[in-house]
Backbone:
DNA sequence: GAGCACTGC
């Protein structure tokens, strides 16, 4: 290998991002203290031990960087209705501020508790566990968490960590969130669809509670927004110029390097850089950010191949792939320490940017690209395309090099290219189908979703499209009001299309089959296809294939899974992702409970008359259909779009009169996924109103 | 005839 990638350090005179430098130098140092309370056991302590432990815990809390600002934080929270707290994730703000609120009497079991939202389940669970330990209480009493399928909270709970999706559901049954005195929206900078919805909703709730203060014992609501990046001003502006608190953390410095020249081939540049770092730098593992599974698997093979050519006196390199679709057992490998005389290279997607933290990383290589979901409301097509990342995403990646000690980040692009990047990633609410969000807003009492108070307003076209979709499904009436069906649909933890199908399954007498299939469709694919065993995986899948397509194929998978009673070895042999199918079974249990609640029989089955299942799916997916053209291609009914069946589908290469599909995503072509065969004569029966309108 | 970032109820 002769090629070299030349890096240069960040231009020190470049003032415009000097602030970013302080950010990276503010690296936290939490790991040194963590062991102390991780060692806590659940065994009953005698009184003396308890006192000692309590003192230790108090001492631990006092030496957190945030503690020095405790009084100031409490004072601000006492005098302001809304506060923006800015600080790195490790500053302790998420664990300490809720405790300060309780200690200062700003929330309690009498006046209402504290809710702290998180975008991810694991974070909510772990934070609750940690704070329960710090407060020396049993998890689920004073401190608890609520995530899907798992709820430890109780009436005594005064600090509750929950996912943002969970808080949204609580609004459905408690429109003013009266059980809470303070709502903390954490990780606000991530701007997930749900946090964005909550911004507007809690702002509205706060206003109403202030107006009705005193009536029926209603108390005002405090809002705390926590963010790790510099968009604090924007949050403050949205929340009526709320006060901003800056919480400093202790973070390790990360040197940032740019390439001197633009790199035409990021994979090649990554490969060369990995070996340059390996040969020239002291020990410490490498984390490489790449856009997708393909790139990761390709580079993994290359790194391991070239590693054998290193001089015998040199350390070896071991490449570990990491992406969401990887089965858990293989994901686990990135946490194992590298073998003797070996440096670990983790090749990862964005999953390592926020969701998974890998210990031992000293070097980060950032290719500057990511695959981003997009949505075109005019033609109703989703896309998944390669885009340059934003500056904040680049800094997030950089930070991953300095979690335990000083590190280096190598960016595979020039400093000029960096300067051209957008400041922030476009919030999710501006780039996805809003049908589910709009239904949820309507069910929570937001009548006019076009006039709703959004921090970043979605385009009018996108909102109108969502309303039209809900109208076509029968969830809203001619006046734009939620129908009875719509109210029922909003209850289900599903996309509106799926809830419609599920509710309709009563008429088609196939709830058993529909619940099973929807459960499998609402998790990531249960099929796993590693690139090096593609043939075996395809072969294994053949035994499940149903001639009518993916929906009934999934049903076959489930039937076989039940026959072997979920055997883990069977899953491995058949390239079934055990984790995903298990989650699907939890979804199924949950859906069964929801069905029983609205007097549906979850066991009603159509037996061998599987056409009923597909006809039933059409009641929700009539807009996702395509008909075979004389030339053998398929054209979508709703958008006259030429679509191709995805190669991973059971219907790939087949020619049938018509197809229905779960999604249409543009990548390199317009691909439809989750495809089944239908007859065009079924269409008007499934959605008479829609097809009569279309035809006339 | 060819492929899919990440969350969440």
Residues:
């Amino acid at each position: 290998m002769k090629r070299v990638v030349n890096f240069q350090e960040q231009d020190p005179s470049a003032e415009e991002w000097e602030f970013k430098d302080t950010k990276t130098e503010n690296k936290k140092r939490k790991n040194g203290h963590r062991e102390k309370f991780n060692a806590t056991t659940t065994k009953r302590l005698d009184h003396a031990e308890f006192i000692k432990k309590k003192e230790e815990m108090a001492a631990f809390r006092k030496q957190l960087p945030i503690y020095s600002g405790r009084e100031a934080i409490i004072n601000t929270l006492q005098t302001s209705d809304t506060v923006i707290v800015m600080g790195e994730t490790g500053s302790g703000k998420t664990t300490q501020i809720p405790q300060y609120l309780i200690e200062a009497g700003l929330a309690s079991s009498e006046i209402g508790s504290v809710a702290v939202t998180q975008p991810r389940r694991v974070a909510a669970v772990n934070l609750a566990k940690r704070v329960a330990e710090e407060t020396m209480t049993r998890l689920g009493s004073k401190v608890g968490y609520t995530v899907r399928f798992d709820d430890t909270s109780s009436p005594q709970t005064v600090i509750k960590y929950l996912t943002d999706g969970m808080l949204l559901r609580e609004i459905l049954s408690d429109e003013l969130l009266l059980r809470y005195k303070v709502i903390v929206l954490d990780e606000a900078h991530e701007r997930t669809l749900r946090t964005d919805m909550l911004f507007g909703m809690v702002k509205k709730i706060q206003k109403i509670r202030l107006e009705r203060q005193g009536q029926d014992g209603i108390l005002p609501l405090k809002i705390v927004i926590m963010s790790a990046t510099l968009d604090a001003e924007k949050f403050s502006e949205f929340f009526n110029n709320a006060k901003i608190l800056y919480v400093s953390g202790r973070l390790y410095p990360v040197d940032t390097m740019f390439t001197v020249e633009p790199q035409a081939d990021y994979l090649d540049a990554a490969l060369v850089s990995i070996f340059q770092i390996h040969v020239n730098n002291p020990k410490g593992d490498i984390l490489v950010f790449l856009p997708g599974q393909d790139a990761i698997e390709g580079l993994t093979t290359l790194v391991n191949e070239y590693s054998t050519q290193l001089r015998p006196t040199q350390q070896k390199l071991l490449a570990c792939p990491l992406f969401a679709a990887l089965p858990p057992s293989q994901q686990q490998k990135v946490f194992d320490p590298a073998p003797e005389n070996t440096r670990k290279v983790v090749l990862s997607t964005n999953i390592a940017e926020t969701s998974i933290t890998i210990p031992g990383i000293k070097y980060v290589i950032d290719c500057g690209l990511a695959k981003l979901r997009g949505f075109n409301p005019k033609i109703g097509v989703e896309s998944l395309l390669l885009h340059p990342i934003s500056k904040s995403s680049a800094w997030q990646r950089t930070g991953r090099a300095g979690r335990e000690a000083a590190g280096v980040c190598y960016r595979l692009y020039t400093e000029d290219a960096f300067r051209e990047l957008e400041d922030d990633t476009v919030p999710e609410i501006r780039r996805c189908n809003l049908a589910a969000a709009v239904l949820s807003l309507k069910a929570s009492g937001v009548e006019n979703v076009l006039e709703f108070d959004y921090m970043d307003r979605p385009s009018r076209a996108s909102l109108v499209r969502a309303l039209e979709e809900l109208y076509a499904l029968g969830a809203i009436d001619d006046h734009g009001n939620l129908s009875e069906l719509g109210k029922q649909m909003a209850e289900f933890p599903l996309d509106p299309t799926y809830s419609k199908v599920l509710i309709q399954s009563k008429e088609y007498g196939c709830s058993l089959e529909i619940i099973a299939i929807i459960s499998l469709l609402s998790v990531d694919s249960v099929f796993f296809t590693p690139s090096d065993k593609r043939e075996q995986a395809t072969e294994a899948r053949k035994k499940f294939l149903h001639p009518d397509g993916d929906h009934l194929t999934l049903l076959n998978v489930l039937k076989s899974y039940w026959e072997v009673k979920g055997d883990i070895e069977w899953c491995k042999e058949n390239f079934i992702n055990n984790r995903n199918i298990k989650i699907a079974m939890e979804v199924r249990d949950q859906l069964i409970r929801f069905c029983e609640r609205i007097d549906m029989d979850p066991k009603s089955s159509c037996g061998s008359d599987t056409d009923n299942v597909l006809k039933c799916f059409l009641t929700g997916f009539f807009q996702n259909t395509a008909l075979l053209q004389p030339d053998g291609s398929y054209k979508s009914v709703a958008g006259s779009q030429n679509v191709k069946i995805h190669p991973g589908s059971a219907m790939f290469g087949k020619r049938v009169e018509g197809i229905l599909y779960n999604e249409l995503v543009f990548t390199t072509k317009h691909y439809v996924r989750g495809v089944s065969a239908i007859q065009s004569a079924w269409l008007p029966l499934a959605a008479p109103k829609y097809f009569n309108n279309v035809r006339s």
